[in-house]
Design a protein that fits this description.
The longest helix has about 45 residues. This protein has one domain. The protein is built from eight helices and no strands. With about 200 residues, the chain is mainly alpha-helical.
Length: about 200
């Protein structure tokens, strides 16, 4: 597996996941949850989120085969999900509703805040373009970064401020929008060529 390791692919996959997870943009939410539920277990939340992403990377494909859906079709569906997330980030609107829970470390921080529908869909969609090892390393890098952010959420909010966080959210929203369009066009072309014969 390690013979397929590519630094370029790893960095690209890491950046895509970083933009989708948007842990920096979620700092105000995390701080609010800390105030509401008390101490958040950063290690537990990060590990659970990382395991969910890696598990879905492998099991997700088998689930797709079971229901008769190919990776390209799922990647296109994933592109639409990323597109919606990007619109939320850029326009500051809420399309998907977040549910609250009595346990903050696992729900809603690990799932769905970190490893939510958008992240899991993106993780599986990346398989259409990148090798597994590069995606796994990308997930691990993001899991470590998530842990560091969760540990220092209060400090980061004070240092960055609401204005900076909003700007970062919009910047990553535009990046996600571009990623969703690229993901759609690349997979649509493959899907079109496999079904339409000239």
């Amino acid at each position: 597996m390690f013979q397929f390791f590519s630094l370029k692919e790893t960095l690209t996959a890491s950046m895509i996941l970083f933009a989708v997870i948007d842990i920096v943009g979620s700092i105000p939410i995390i701080v609010g949850l800390k105030k509401k539920f008390g101490k958040i277990d950063a290690e537990r939340a990060s590990i659970v989120a990382g395991i969910l992403m890696i598990a879905f990377l492998f099991i997700g494909n088998k689930i797709l085969k079971l229901i008769g859906v190919d990776v390209n079709s799922f990647a296109i569906a994933g592109a639409f999900v990323i597109f919606v997330i990007a619109l939320e980030m850029i326009l500051g609107i809420e399309i998907q509703k977040n549910t609250e829970s009595k346990s903050a470390s696992i729900v809603p921080i690990a799932f769905p805040l970190i490893a939510g529908a958008g992240t899991l869909t993106t993780t599986l969609s990346l398989r259409a373009e990148y090798h597994d090892i590069n995606i796994i390393v990308g997930i691990v890098i993001n899991t470590i970064f998530v842990y560091l952010v969760l540990k220092s959420a209060n400090w980061l909010e004070k240092k960055l401020g609401d204005g900076t966080l909003q700007v970062l959210q919009k910047v990553f929203g535009i990046i996600l929008l571009a990623i969703s369009i690229k993901l759609f066009t690349a997979n649509f072309a493959q899907l079109f060529s496999s079904y339409v014969k000239f």
